[in-house]
Design goal:
0% helix, globular, 122 residues, 4-stranded antiparallel beta sheet, 11 strands
């Protein structure tokens, strides 16, 4: 079955960096658009970034543009999110996901991992 396992979260000071990883299995990863989404306490799922199967098409939310970079290694079935210049408002549970639809108020995904917590202190 589909498995998405995130890692790399933690507590970091404002301005710091983290790299999240997501190990994928149970589906054709190299043929699948992949997403990072996040959820802060009391809020809905927010789309962060997505990447095409071959990695040539990448898009980031305006709130993270220029600070976050999504990438993938299809040989290893791993998705990454490199986060720089972190801000307290980036604190959330970050999920690796597939089959996502970005709605006006919330993003819905067919499959998500268990998430990895990112906490940015001011």
């Amino acid at each position: 079955q589909v498995q998405l396992v995130e890692s790399g979260g933690g507590l970091v000071q404002s301005g710091g960096s983290l790299r999240l990883s997501c190990a994928a299995s149970g589906f054709a990863f190299a043929k699948t658009w992949m997403y990072w989404v996040r959820q802060a306490p009391g809020k809905g799922i927010e789309w962060v970034s997505h990447i095409s199967p071959n990695g040539q098409i990448i898009k980031h939310a305006d709130s993270v543009q220029g600070r976050f970079t999504i990438s993938r290694d299809n040989a290893k079935n791993v998705l990454y999110l490199h986060m720089d210049t972190l801000k307290p408002e980036d604190s959330a549970l970050y999920y690796c996901a597939r089959d996502c639809l970005m709605g006006v108020s919330e993003t819905r995904c067919g499959d998500r991992g268990q998430g990895t917590q990112v906490t940015v202190s001011s």
